[in-house]
């Protein structure tokens, strides 16, 4: 059942930033070109059984060669901004050595093409593609990586800073910590459970140092893209509410509190973190110009299942040793990925952020929101976007200061461990030919944005 999306959307502010998002590893391909080094995901996807369809991102959507076509699509869509990521291994192929000018050349061309098309470039410095040479030495588990990341941030700002006016440091450090280092579903495929926590602290510190590096180059409008969603306890029992609280702490507060309050949400947890944590927090908590939220769905969480059974977490088997277990959310439509579609939870999330962080919360931008469905006549995606934009407007009407909204994603692309089996694009990709075909949602969004401008 597709809810009716024919009523015009409520009016958003005239200067609201409307955009779409993508990332390097998921789109660029051309992994051996222009002097690019190898990334953690290049190596991970070569390991048998790690990617659902046995695929990899060697070609992806060939965006590296077809970026002009993609920029033309952005223009046709009427996007005000494009959020892309810079591949660290393109810019610093071995992670800690010389800067590869040819790698930066690509982003230079992309930024110029976007500006010519009237689209604001919004680069993300890191969207999970750690240089393999650093990953092999421990990646984000090691403090040394943080300094290399700051040097890389400086190199990008030195090259693009004259034309880029809005920046994102990291994408979803929570997901990389949990999925990459905690349970091994993503690169680098480590299963450290709670021993993954140093990767969280080091990413946050890397964010702080990157903010300093960017500002030293005169950059403005710096934010981060953190994944967040409401956690709903499976029941009112003490076991379930306690488990849900721990999950919420790890996925939401662990990554937002240090940035917005300058402290970790729990002292016992902070005691597990490496290095001079109090000093680091001063770097991590430098005021942000805006806060980016990636929202997909709420999560229902309860106590671990009896008998030590693994829990299914959107196709991921979570190890039974974890002290919480995600549970099914019934009663809502589901995306092709199986995630529940709950627009009201976006309102709930934004209100909970305003309540928890108050004046410490800078203006918010939704840096990702979207859904996977097959097909070009994607009426379910239209309903999804329509519902979430209304939910966003409701939060704004209640006083949450939201300045922009980015759809994930411009085109179908490499969906990490799902390979090419999940399609998030407004534009369909026929992978054998790389032919791009705008979906029904593309036309719907173009018209909705046009109506907002009119
Ligand atoms: C983002 O991560 C990434 O930034 C982006 O690269 C990616 O392509 C995009 O989203 C789509 O996946 O089993 O129902 O509880 C998404 C973060 C965290 C969202 C896990 C879904 C579990 C769903 N995801 N969450 S469920």
From TrEMBL:
The reaction(s) this protein catalyses: Hydrolysis of terminal, non-reducing beta-D-glucosyl residues with release of beta-D-glucose
Q: Which residues form a coiled coil?
A: none
Name the GO terms of the biological process aspect: cellulose catabolic process
* Entry's Gene Ontology molecular function annotations: beta-glucosidase activity
Residue numbers spanned by region Disordered = 27-56
Locate the residues binding substrate: 26, 127, 171, 296, 408, 415-416
Q: What is its EC number?
A: 3.2.1.21
Q: Which GO terms describe its cellular component?
A: cytosol
Q: Which Gene3D superfamilies match?
A: Glycosidases
EC class? hydrolase
What positions does UniProt annotate as the active site of this protein? 172, 368
Q: Where is the composition biased (Basic and acidic residues)?
A: 44-56
Name the domain of life: Bacteria
What InterPro entries would the database entry show?
A: GH, Glyco_hydro_1, Glyco_hydro_1_beta-glucosidase
UniProt keywords, alphabetically: Carbohydrate metabolism, Cellulose degradation, Glycosidase, Hydrolase, Polysaccharide degradation
Family per similarity comment: Belongs to the glycosyl hydrolase 1 family.
- Return the PANTHER family for the record: GLYCOSYL HYDROLASE, LP05116P
Q: What is this protein called?
A: Beta-glucosidase
Which organism does this record belong to? Answer: Streptomyces benahoarensis
